[in-house]
Amino acid sequence: MDFSIRITDVADDSIRRAILEPLVAYNQSKTGHDEHRLLVIAVEDPDGGVIGGLWGRTAYGWLYVELLVVPETLRGRGLGTELMKRAEAEAIARGCRGAWLDTFAFQARPFYEQLGYTCFGELNDYPVGSARYFMKKSFRRL
């Protein structure tokens, strides 16, 4: 089979799909699971414009929180905690047993620790002079 390799920094959804679809099919063949679902909680201004929120997904019995942003003017009011609690409640309703996320040293590790998350991995010097932390939380089954 002939092929070529091309490098780009342009986001092309068709390229992403071409890479993702066979990977998802392979993973499903090995795990027997294909229950990936988006979980999006938007914070909106009075005009309906999105000003923050949480973006994640559930898969393999876990919630992955990819993005969490609370507008600076709304910080310190418990909004971040509320977004996380709502995401965790939805994940539990979907049958998840835990959640995981990553954060930088200059971001919100103490915030997540207050919510019960623990660090399970660390990438030092990412960015240089800082670190990236991988955190998880197990949900208690009642």
Largest sheet: 6 strands, mixed
The average pLDDT is 94
Number of strands: 6
Low-confidence stretches: none
Distance between the termini: 55 Å
Q: What topology, given as strand order, has the largest sheet?
A: 1-2-3-4-6-5
Q: Provide the CATH superfamily.
A: Gcn5-related N-acetyltransferase (GNAT)
| Helix share, percent | 25-40%
Question: What is the domain total for the residues?
Answer: 1
Please provide a written account of the structure.
With 142 residues, the protein is an alpha+beta fold. It is built from 3 helices and 6 strands, in the order αβββαβαββ. It has one domain: Gcn5-related N-acetyltransferase (GNAT) (Aminopeptidase, 3-Layer(aba) Sandwich). It has a 6-stranded mixed sheet with strand order 1-2-3-4-6-5. Strand 2 and strand 3 form a beta hairpin.
